[in-house]
Amino acid sequence: MVLGFLGCCGAVQESECMLLLFFIGLLAILLLQIVAGILGALFKPQIEETLDKTFAENAAKLSGSAQMDREFQAIFRKFEINAS
């Protein structure tokens, strides 16, 4: 919102300072997205492995009968009810 405000007010008032801050903000966001994309591509195998491991552990907890598994199942049920 702040970035949009800078862009709108800078354009209306023809303020070079506001427009420069708007441009710098957009450039920073673009660079962060590029870096995130590169890091996501480089670490894709580790991310997939971690997600698979987490999903497998949680699936086992959903079908388990131990006390901790039952607590996890209750929390998961509450999450499902709140999410819908």
TrEMBL record:
It holds the Pfam family Tetraspanin. Keywords: Membrane, Transmembrane, Transmembrane helix. GO terms for cellular component: plasma membrane. The chain crosses the membrane at residues 20-43. InterPro entries: Tetraspanin/Peripherin (IPR018499). The keyword Transmembrane applies. PANTHER family: TETRASPANIN, TETRASPANIN-8. This is Tetraspanin-8. The gene is TSPAN8.
